[in-house]
Amino acid sequence: MNIEAWKRQIERERKQKDQFFKEHWQSPIPEKDRKRFKGLDYFPPDPKYRFELELHEHEKKKIVQIEDTGGNLRNMFRWGEFRFTIDGVPCTLQVYKSDAHEPVLFLPFKDATSGKETYGAGRYIDLHDPEDRTADGKWILDFNKAYNPWCAFSWDYVCPYVPPENWLKVPILAGEKAYKLD
After folding, report:
1. Which residues pair with 40 in a beta bridge?
2. Whose CB has fewer CB within 10 Å in the chain, the N or C terminal residue?
3. For the CA atoms of the chain, what is the radius of gyration?
4. What is the pLDDT of residues 31-85, one digit of tens each?
């Protein structure tokens, strides 16, 4: 992996997202706040938080109910798990699918930064097949792409809570920080 090219790509994606949030009619930023919106706050891109991992698929893909901020229960398939190490600490995160045929893995997580530097309810990563796969079939889990759910920006949205099994004790100093309107 070319680290400089990877960093440029992360920065490019962040600028595009900021432009979308500031200008697009579908932005989660309330229209009255968009003039004051100066962009999202991010940790600097750090390759330490980018992993190429095997997905350990669960033999039985149980349906679990995940509550959202509106008090609804969402049925999700508990699809598999990623195992990795950060600063010598073994970590495991579950990934979910809302539909068995969907090509996207949903990874909600909380970490030691939640409620401090990052959104208190946690952040998400979406992994797309085949875009987020390596040539040898591993998944690219890049916490630098972790984002806040839209409910972090407006009460108009409801978002799934992070299940306790995806609460990490380590800090993930990557991705979006907590949203603050300047």
Report:
1. none
2. C
3. 16
4. 999 999 999 999 999 999 999 999 999 999 999 999 999 999 999 999 999 999 9
**Separation between Cα atoms, residue 170 and residue 87, nearest integer Å:** 8
Asked if 92 contacts 81 with a C-beta cutoff of 8 angstroms, the reply is yes
36: tokens are: 């004051």
Question: Can you spell out the DSSP letters for 95-163?
Answer: EEESSTT-SEEEEEEB-TTBTTTB-TT-EEEEEETTTTB-TTS-EEEEGGG-B--GGGT-TT---BPPP
Q: Following CA atoms 173, 174, 179, 182 in sequence, which dihedral angle do they give, to the nearest 10 degrees? A: 90
Interacting residues of 117 by C-beta distance below 8 A, sequence separation 6+: 43, 173, 177, 178
| Token pair of 35 as six digits | 């003039």
Tell me which amino acid residue 110 is: K
| Amino acid symbol at 33 | D
Start-end of H helices in the chain? 3-23
Bridge partners (DSSP) listed for residue 51:
141
Q: Is 18 exposed, middle or buried (0-12, 13-18, 19+ CB in 10 A)?
A: middle
CA–CA separation, 63 vs 79, rounded Å? 9
Name the token pair of 108: 């909600």
